[in-house]
Amino acid sequence: MSELKTGSAEARFADLIWENEPITSGELAKLGEMEFGWKKTTSFTVLKRLCDRGIFQNLSGTVTSLISREEYYARHSEQYVRDTFGGSLPAFLAAFGTRKKLSDAEIEELQRIINSMRR
For the purposes of burial, counting CB atoms within 10 Å of the CB of 36, is it exposed (0-12), middle (13-18) or buried (19 or more)? Predict the structure, then answer.
């Protein structure tokens, strides 16, 4: 799969596709106009970029996803940690924790996630 990085407008457009798929490219362009005030050509340009990245496909005018939203955001997060923190999840959490104190509930949830990864 090619580079997953997307700008915020592309990510919002991707969310629109996931919420409405399968959807025709024409219907998608109308949604792009309603949601973002985009011209038809802008929607088609952004769609092409997302298809080129292997996130969606446009076959015979019908747009569907090649990966789920959850898979996309998981890969995107992994890439961010890799690019920004040298792949170190502990470094990411340490940086995150210096700006935002975690609640007891958040700490417990993180502990549950860590425990499930050990199994």
Answer: middle
